[in-house]
Amino acid sequence: MGYRLTKVDNSFCHSFIWVFIIYHSSLINLSCSNTTDEAAQFFLKGNVQLQKREYREAIRYYSEALAKKPDFADAYSNRGLAKFRNDDREGALADYTRAIDADPDFGTAYFNRAEVRLETGDVSGSLADLQRIEKQYTDSTFYQTRLGDTYVRLNKPAEAQAAYDRAVQLQPDNVEALTNRGALFFSQKAYEQADQDIRRALQLNPNQDAALNNQSLLLAHAGNYAEALTYVERALAVRSNQPYYLNNKAFLLLKLDRPTEAVPLVQESLRLDGQNAWAHQTLGLYFLSVKEPDKALPEFRRAEKLDAAVDELYYAIGLAEWATGNKMAACAAWQRGESVGDLSAKRERVLRCR
């Protein structure tokens, strides 16, 4: 309850939610065929700056190349990647589309555009781009990983697992695929398989922040809150302002009866992402812990509005309603929770609602 699982993706989460949090694995095209010499020189200079992570300089050089050769598909594609890494999603999307307009068979541009579309919420568009290049990239572990991510967002777990399985088969040390498949297993309550994938991912990369956070979740699910806290703190050491990690740490601190330490973390999480239903739930749990159910209820209702699938949400709503003396509303909340498989809500309804 109140805790988010994370997934690695390109720039790469409701007990399980998918977050885009690792290194952007987009393909970089380094060719300069069929261009004028001058445009090619600017393009190659852009590639050097891109690999040095000097994204603004890379964008400048690619723009110079495009000024010399306006139909230079490779320059559009690589400028799109530089813009993406410089946090300009819309600019990246536009450049990838221009690359495809210039070369309708440009597989790299379709793959890169699929990643941006996935991150910006156009999941159907992402799948369409990936399907467009399926024959070309079917044996790419990165392609299969992204295909799995897209199917997860489309709520097609069987297709997602098949893609992740293929990604791991193609490259057994694909940390991203292992982490994301582990997240999928967790969502399906296949905890042993989730644990195997997350532990393997951490063996390969002990600093993979999504895997660290997910291992924290697995430990929390087993009731090992103190040990879970050490893992989420390691994740935060890698990404100190990741809102889901901040919320997860706050949740664990509440479980460890440390509410004073928890509240600034969940408040910061909400400042970074006010649409995080899980953080609203955690803040509600904080108010419950300090005997302020009247303040807890609005947070729980906000979480419900954002995502009614948050774990044990109706159990928490029922506790808050009961604490304010509204027993009928509490029983109704627990009954609703029971209807969606919330065992804690069922327990409370059986015990209190006679």
UniProtKB/TrEMBL annotation:
The species this protein was found in: Spirosoma endophyticum
GO cellular component: cell outer membrane
Record bears the keyword Transcription: no
Keyword Repeat found: yes
TPR repeats: 39-72, 73-106, 141-174, 175-208
InterPro entries linked: TPR-like_helical_dom_sf, TPR_rpt, Ycf3
The name this protein goes by in its record: TPR repeat-containing protein
Keywords linked to the UniProt accession: Repeat, TPR repeat
SUPFAM superfamilies: TPR-like (SSF48452)
Gene Ontology biological process terms, A to Z: receptor-mediated virion attachment to host cell
Gene3D superfamilies linked to this entry: Tetratricopeptide repeat domain
SMART domains membership: TPR
